[in-house]
User: Which sequence fits this backbone?
């Protein structure tokens, strides 16, 4: 896909991540765009805010989009490489494309998705990486909890 | 693990599936048991009831369990083989064991989980299989929507 389009869409996910941080949460945001480029859903990690470990940024955006008959042609945009949970979501529902803000601070399942035919765009965005680096340094226990690291 | 224990735990997941069916929903249920055998969370698919595609049975049980520092030693019990989304959940959070009611009507990611060190117990329970066979025959469009099949 067009990199300028990917970067434009990433701003929605970054806005979500910043909102999560402002709420005292984990700063990861995501947005789901339709095949026609319309925003279907957006959200951020809600572990702290809702005490809900099932709402990672991607699942939050997916939930916000509500029921859809097909995900063909859709794009999941996320500030951080998707973990196995969120990568499984993408694969199961046939989301066509994933735009990853950065994969420096965490390398999830995006290579696996690429092997299974999902188009992957890694933007290596410095602002996304800085946000996670700062957060992981400040709250390592919360970050480890969020990815199930003992 | 002990098969009698697995079958006993499966009844919790089956009760959840039946509750979902009684609500007009997709009859898949799950339960998360702790390393000490205590029930941590239980739930069922809520696509129809809540208009929420993110709540598969396993993610519903995981959510119900709330925040946990570790999933080491826990067991996810589900009436149906976990899809990629729910298999990703199990792998990411380090859930140790999955008890599968049946994998006849749908074969998800449990082989992949076994390759990655998760203990898998497939019970091939006739009641679980009959419940899904009846549901898929009655509501194929809803079933396909739930697994992202175009």
Assistant:
């Amino acid at each position: 896909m067009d990199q300028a389009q990917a970067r434009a869409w990433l701003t929605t996910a970054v806005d979500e991540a910043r909102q999560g941080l402002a709420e005292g949460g984990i700063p990861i945001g995501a947005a789901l765009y339709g095949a026609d480029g319309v925003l279907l859903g957006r959200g951020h990690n809600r572990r702290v805010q809702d005490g809900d470990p099932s709402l990672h940024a991607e699942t939050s955006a997916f939930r916000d989009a509500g029921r859809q008959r097909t995900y063909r042609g859709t794009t999941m945009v996320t500030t951080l490489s998707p973990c196995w949970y969120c990568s499984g979501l993408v694969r199961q529902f046939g989301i066509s494309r994933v735009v990853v803000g950065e994969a420096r601070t965490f390398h999830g399942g995006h290579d696996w998705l690429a092997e299974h035919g999902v188009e992957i765009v890694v933007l290596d965005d410095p602002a996304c990486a800085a946000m996670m680096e700062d957060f992981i340094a400040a709250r390592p226990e919360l970050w480890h909890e969020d990815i199930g690291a003992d």
Chain B has a mean pLDDT of 98. Chain B touches chain A through 33 residues (CB under 8 Å). Residues 42 and 55 of chain B are 12 Å apart (CA to CA). DSSP finds seven helices and five strands in chain B.
